[in-house]
Specification:
Oligomer: single chain
Distance between the termini: 98 Å
Radius of gyration: 30 Å
Order of helices and strands: EEHEHHHHHHHHHHHHHHHH
Number of helices: 17
Length: 409
């Protein structure tokens, strides 16, 4: 039996979509006809029946996204732990009503068919169009090899929840400053583009001597809309293009990351985040039974840092040649200061996975405190900048008015 993805119409004219099991394409059409469904599109799930890239971009319920994939791993862990075979566990998830007709249903159907045809779970996920990360593939493969798939699935679900929580923290931290900056730009454009020129006309007609701050604001207002604002926008566009072009090259990404690692404001947060990802991934892979050499390489990629990935690639070779893991860790940039002592403790206790799990928990608290501190500093800094701008405009307007009143008196 194969799973087919269909999209079509009921006999009453209503649109419908979903999946159906059948022997072949002809059998699928016959079964749909029995349900009074006229298929407009009918494809095998394992042969490209998953959603298109555009559908996946629009859908919040796709295994391409982190949160649904974490929920999928957790549900799979519970069913495998209860003793259900892998195919049966996938079928239980597919039979759920809210999954059956959605993007996740098509993806799970494709995975189920591939596993039923003899593929391992990692290949089934990848070939079904689900972009799992390198370390996820390694963890799942190690679980299949060691017979602990239910355990590593639960660990993966916990890991993805942590990743999603960190992303949400970053988005929340950036939202308020972004709104403040946007409002400041809008207000600034309105004031400098419309209010200041009107003010300049009034003061010019009075013929009075203007204070320096007023002359400065009037000059800036005259040049703001025709010159300053377009130049600023063009400069930002060219800067963004240059950064994007630089980041498209491996050498460029490494250079940017090294620069961030040296900046006083960003250094601590970047270092903590990289160490947190490395520690969490290392603990997860070691618990899944992966060799230490392979673990170091994959954990370096899981940091999201190209620089750390290349450094950890060399570190894994050093460990492979017989070097002590703790000595290698202590010499790594960014990671050594945070995780070197934990590596020595893990070697002394004989349980590296547990030590790195403790390290990741501690680093997660450090990261949360660091983000809270950054947000706490950004908000008043932006408020002060906006207040200074308003003060300058107010002084530029009020000082000539006060001077004119004194002359009249």
């Amino acid at each position: 039996m194969k799973t087919f993805v269909y999209r079509g119409y009921h006999r009453d004219g209503g649109r419908t979509k979903g999946v159906i099991e059948a022997l072949d394409l002809k059998d699928a059409r016959e079964k749909l006809s029995e349900r009074n469904i006229l298929p407009e599109q009918l494809t095998a799930a394992a042969d490209g029946g998953t959603a298109s890239s555009n559908d996946l971009f629009l859908s919040r319920n796709s295994l391409v996204r982190i949160q649904p994939r974490g929920e999928f791993y957790r549900a799979m862990s519970a069913m495998l732990k209860a003793g259900l075979p892998l195919v049966a566990s996938l079928e239980v998830q597919l039979d759920q009503r809210h999954v059956h007709q959605g993007v996740v249903g098509r993806e799970i159907a494709s995975v189920r068919d591939r596993v039923r045809d003899g593929s391992n779970l990692v290949d089934a996920l990848v070939n079904s169009g689900i972009a799992i990360s390198t370390f996820e593939a390694a963890v799942i493969e190690s679980g299949e090899r060691t017979g602990t798939l239910h355990e590593v699935m639960e660990q993966l679900a916990d890991y993805l929840e942590d990743v999603n929580r960190i992303r949400q923290t970053l988005r929340t931290a950036c939202l308020y400053p972004a709104v403040i900056v946007l409002l400041a730009l809008i207000v600034g454009a309105g004031v400098m583009g419309f209010l200041v020129p009107q003010m300049a006309k009034v003061f010019e007609e009075s013929g009075m001597e203007l204070p320096a701050i007023t002359r400065f604001v009037i000059a800036a207002g005259r040049w703001f809309v025709p010159v300053i604002l377009p130049s600023l926008l063009v400069g930002m566009a060219f800067a963004a293009l240059a950064v994007r072009r630089s980041l498209s090259r491996t050498s460029g990404r490494i250079a940017w990351e090294k620069t961030i690692a040296r900046l006083p404001v960003l250094r601590d947060g970047f270092q903590t985040l990289v160490a947190l990802r490395f520690a969490r991934t290392t603990s997860l892979l070691l618990q899944g039974g992966l060799p230490l050499v392979e673990t170091i390489r994959l954990a370096g990629k899981a940091t999201g840092s190209t620089w750390m990935a290349s450094v950890c690639e060399k570190a894994s070779e050093s460990v492979k040649q017989g070097a002590s893991f703790s000595n290698v860790m202590s010499g790594l940039p960014m990671l050594g200061a945070e995780l070197g002592s934990w590596a020595r403790a893990g070697e002394a206790s004989g349980d590296l996975a547990a030590m790195f799990s403790h390290a990741s928990n501690r680093l997660r608290h450090t990261w949360s405190a660091s983000m809270d501190r950054v947000v706490t500093l950004i908000e008043p800094a932006l408020i002060i900048l906006v207040a200074v701008f308003v003060l300058v405009i107010a002084l530029a307007i009020l000082l000539p008015i006060l001077s004119l009143n004194q002359q009249l008196v």
